[in-house]
From TrEMBL, chain A:
This is NADH-quinone oxidoreductase subunit N. It comes from the Bacteria. Residues 119-407 form the NADH:quinone oxidoreductase/Mrp antiporter transmembrane domain. It is found in: Cell membrane; Endomembrane system; Membrane.
Length: 482, 498
């Protein structure tokens, strides 16, 4: 007999989305739905802290509850709260036909993400993944009058479909070999056909890399970020990546990634390519969102360095880095959304320090954090990852990390430089400055403070992250099919 | 009291900068400037206090100590320790920071509050670098001091600053990350040996002595400091950056920031890894000599006065490298004296260059000339510092360079020969500069009246001249005081704390 947990957050989010649906069917009211969404999210956040209500018994554990799942789940929920706070603006509230659904889709995306972080069974993981992906698809596509939204949605749909199919195929191969649906990498040496098992693992990895948008599976990310609204872009760039990375870490928690093997080599190559490719891609961009896409890819590469350096800092540094990345990236998106929603071209940002000093300062703090310069939190996060890498002797990865960070520094600093200097002669700005909504302004302030405070006093979060353990996925008693 | 003096040296400028920023929010230049000046005076008073307490504790060893936990789980502490070398460097920083704040009033007319905030933050960061004995803290300050400077150059700099500042930042940050690798490598090696994770300089120095990978770790530190110093061939960022910086930033950059590289070489390369550093010494000294000759040669060919000073600066910094790696006590003393003297003389030369640019509207020496009759007082100062820079006996630079050459002589006669040849070139470009700027016929109409010097200028240049003279005539107190303390000697203050 084994125990299975239904994590509180999953339960609360399920119930919450039902409540939201019921509210809409009664009467449409955007502001109420937004508030309801925040309440549901806050309730689920609170429920993460509580002990699990529902413990089921049975032979098929679907979810487990451990500190890694709770931490990643809390990060996901917090990031979605931030996204809701920046959502009440412009594009969304201007379109009355879809606005209530928007908040339901956000709750559902959260549900999917949280389910992924604590899934210990392939089926529950896949359900979570698809819940997240389909909600994202809806969110990307809902501005149906826009051509680029359609393009982005189509790209996302196709590539996400391919990734899901690859994942499923990989899971199927592993299931054929082991007869188990455990969400954990099988022990390849004890399989009757190790070749097929290895193929399965590599396919699973490839599917995950597609969703994580690691190089060379990254091509969709820039187009999707470009074609959607800013809040949804931050959902794609932050929330879904946290969820997927959390699940990936759990999948590989049972194996020693320090020993070279086919899949470790794949991760290594992808990490190197992501760090270099993401940064090189961002350097040449003139569109801010494409630049952020490149930056996001590079940060996935840095996270993979922590991923490949499990002992003794790997998990803790990954946890810290996820938080730092989420705070800074959400901050950049929130400022874009609040101050210069049409500021796609980076030249639109010229002279922001004169026109909106506070916003420009906050933006600089976020960029400094992404670049990894003190006193912002990104500095300590990168330091932590390098510490993990050094202790695991990942020399190659570390040199690539340094090289690519230096490249990264160039474009983050160039953005600050642009904000400090007036627009070049002859450039006619088309974007208008807007006043951030109170919620958005609060969000920006909170994120900027968090970036600085956590950068100067990272002790508390380090304590928290050091305590995080990924419990190995339990081996079910009756797992084999007769 | 003494306990909190060290963190106060970091906090006072930082908080004062913040106050200056707030004072300048209304747009007026004056209050921000006044707050900034008061802050610097306050910092100076604390420094005087620290110095008096240190002197009473006797020379050599560690004078003061401060420690409190920061990130306990990773063994990171807010740990400051002060020895003679650090104290001398702090004094240099405090002295150089005055002209930056005093003379900025003319160039910085708008957003003065922000300027003073950035300036004082840089100074706080540099103070931190000279005192931090927790390697993480050191690295934190090392990176932190660049950021405000980046802002200063970018906002108030000259044409071409965008390229220059990016180059500067990428060079220094990239090499800084290599140092981070080395720091972490050392920490991990130490953790494997003692199963304690710590960033403490003193504890790590035990491991640094015996670990077989010490050579690799030292290289990481060495490269970061070599870029900052800068050592040829890592000097590409310097002339552009100096030329594009506003006067205050170039004074700070040449006067103190370059010395953080020299300080790091002593504290973290030679003291921490004595064995591998001795192996590296021939290479480092050769590069030092190459730098002295090559950059002096380049300086001869410059027509932009700021670039000339910039190249001459790299050339003179070669002596620091030479002295530090000579492995002799006398060479080390010479290197430290050279750091102080060079900081004062180059800082003063940049004050002069800034003033010339201010009054004439150009940096091109071909367009200057014949300024002596128009501004005799100023020209006399320029002559003095040019003479100091070329190593005239009786002034500080001579002491530094002579001691370095003496130290090098014990190691290699060839290198001494070539390094001394650099002094000839140094006379060539210094005197050419004097000739082209101050003698001969007038070639330009001044954009603003030449006239007499303002009181702050006279004060700044006068104090620098007096200090150089004092250092040249009677350098022994500075040489005695500035002996770097070994990491293996437990600090006096620490003993008291226990």
């Amino acid at each position: 007999m084994s125990f299975s947990f239904l994590p509180n957050a999953v339960l609360v989010l399920c119930l919450g989305s039902l409540v939201q649906l019921a509210a809409i069917s009664w009467r449409r009211h955007v502001a109420r739905d937004a508030v309801l969404c925040v309440i549901v999210l806050l309730a689920s956040l609170a429920s993460i802290m509580l002990p699990t209500f529902l413990i089921m018994t049975g032979s098929l554990p679907l979810f487990s509850s451990d500190s890694w799942g709770s931490y990643a789940g809390a990060l996901i929920i917090l990031s979605v709260i931030a996204i809701v706070l920046m959502s009440r603006h412009g594009a969304i509230s201007a379109d009355p036909s879809v606005n209530s659904e928007y908040f339901i889709l956000l709750t559902l995306a959260t549900l999917g993400g949280v389910a992924m972080t604590c899934a210990v069974n392939v089926i529950s993981f896949f359900l979570g993944l698809e819940t997240l992906s389909l909600s994202l698809l809806g969110l990307i596509a809902f501005r149906n009058e826009r051509l680029d939204a359609g393009e982005a949605a189509m790209k996302y749909l196709l590539l996400s479909g391919v990734a899901s199919a690859t994942l499923i195929f990989g899971f199927a191969l592993i299931f054929a070999e082991t007869g188990s649906l455990r969400f954990a990498m099988p022990d390849l040496s004890h399989l009757p056909e190790p070749m097929i098992g290895t193929m399965g693992v590599i396919l699973v990895l490839t599917g995950m890399f597609f969703k994580l948008s690691a190089v060379p599976f990254h091509l969709w990310l820039a187009d999707v970020l470009e074609g959607t609204t800013i809040p949804v872009a931050s959902l794609v760039a932050v929330t879904s990546k946290i969820a997927l990375f959390a699940a990936m870490l759990r999948y590989f928690s049972s194996v020693n990634l320090g020993v070279p093997s086919a899949q470790v080599n794949e991760i290594l190559i992808v990490a190197v390519l992501s760090m270099l490719g993401g940064n090189l891609m961002a350097v040449v961009q003139t569109d801010l969102r494409r630049l952020l896409a490149g930056s996001s890819i590079a940060h996935v590469g840095y996270l993979l360095v922590a991923f490949l350096s499990p002992q003794p800092f790997g998990v803790a540094s990954a946890a810290f880095y996820l938080a730092a990345y989420a705070i800074s990236t959400l901050g950049v998106f929130a400022i874009m959304n609040g101050v210069l929603p049409q500021g796609r071209d980076i030249r639109e940002w010229h002279g922001l320090f004169r026109r909106k000093p506070a916003a420009a300062l906050a933006m600089s703090i976020m960029l400094i954090s992404l670049a990894g310069i003190p006193p912002a939190v990104g500095f300590f996060a990168k330091f932590y990852i390098v510490a993990a890498g050094v202790s695991a002797h990942q020399i190659l990865l570390l040199f690539v990390l340094i090289l690519s960070s230096t490249i990264g520094l160039f474009y983050y600093l160039r953005l600050i430089l642009i904000m400090l200097t007036p627009a070049p002669e002859g450039y006619v700005s088309r974007a208008e400055l807007s006043m951030p909504t109170p919620a958005n302004a609060t969000l920006i302030a909170v994120l900027a403070c968090a970036t600085l405070v956590l950068g100067i006093v990272p002790g508390a979060l380090v304590d928290r992250s050091q305590g995080i353990v990924v419990t190995p996925v339990p081996i079910p008693v009756h797992s084999t099919i007769p | 009291m003494m306990m909190f003096a060290l963190p106060a040296l970091v906090l006072i400028p930082f908080l004062g900068g913040f106050a200056a920023w707030i004072a300048g929010l209304r747009g007026a230049t004056r209050p921000a400037w006044a707050v900034s000046l008061v802050t610097l005076i306050l910092m100076l008073l604390v420094l005087v206090n620290v110095t008096l307490a240190s002197l009473s504790a006797g020379t050599g060893g560690w004078f003061a100590h401060f420690s409190m936990p920061w990130i306990p789980l990773l063994g990171i502490n807010l740990r400051f320790d002060l020895d003679g070398l650090g104290l001398v460097m702090l004094w240099l920083n405090a002295l150089i920071s005055f002209p930056c704040a005093l003379l900025s009033a003319r160039n910085v007319s708008e957003r003065a509050g922000l300027f003073h905030f950035l300036l004082l933050s840089t100074i706080a960061g540099i103070n931190g670098v000279f005192m931090a004995t927790d390697l993480f803290l050191f690295f934190f300050f090392w990176e932190l001091m660049l950021l405000p400077l980046f802002g200063i150059i970018l906002i108030w700099g000259d044409a071409g600053r965008q390229r220059a500042v990016l180059k500067f930042f990428l060079f220094t940050q990239g090499s800084g990350l290599l140092m981070l690798l080395a720091i972490l490598g050392l920490v991990i090696v130490n953790a494997q040996r003692t199963s304690v994770i710590t960033f403490d300089y003193f504890l790590l120095s035990q491991t640094a002595m015996i670990t077989p990978v010490a050579g690799v770790l030292m290289l990481g530190f060495f490269l970061a400091f070599a870029v900052k110093l800068p050592m040829v061939p890592f000097h590409a960022w310097l002339p552009d950056t100096y030329a594009a910086s506003p006067a205050a930033a170039s004074i700070l950059l040449s006067g103190v920031l370059a010395k953080t590289g020299g300080y790091g070489m002593i504290r973290f390369v030679v003291m921490l890894f004595p064995g591998p550093a001795a192996h590296l010494a021939p290479v480092a000294m050769t590069l030092g000599v190459v730098g002295i000759l090559y950059c002096a040669w380049l300086a001869v060919a410059q027509s932009d006065i700021k670039r000339l000073i910039a190249y001459s600066s790299i050339s003179h910094l070669g002596f620091i490298l030479l002295g530090v790696f000579s492995g002799t006590r006398i060479g080390m003393e010479g290197a430290i004296a050279q750091m102080v003297a060079h900081g004062l003389s180059t800082g003063a030369l940049f004050v002069i260059a800034g003033l010339l640019e201010d009054r004439l509207g150009t940096r091109d020496m071909a367009k200057m000339g014949g300024l002596w009759p128009a501004m005799p007082q100023f020209s006399a100062f320029a002559m003095f510092f040019a003479a100091a820079s070329l190593g005239l006996p009786g002034l500080g630079n001579f002491v530094g360079e002579f001691l370095v050459l003496m130290g090098t002589w014990q190691v290699s006669h060839t290198m001494t020969f070539f390094a001394a040849a650099g002094l000839v070139l140094s006379s060539v470009y210094s005197l050419t500069m004097m000739l082209r700027v101050f003698f001969g016929p007038r070639r330009s109409e001044a954009s603003s009246p030449l006239g007499a010097l303002s009181v702050p200028h006279v004060a700044v240049l006068g104090v620098a001249a007096l200090l150089l003279l004092a250092l040249g005539v009677y350098p022994q107190p500075v040489l005695n005081l500035s002996v770097p303390a070994s990491p293996h000697s437990v600090s006096y203050a620490q003993e008291q704390a226990q």
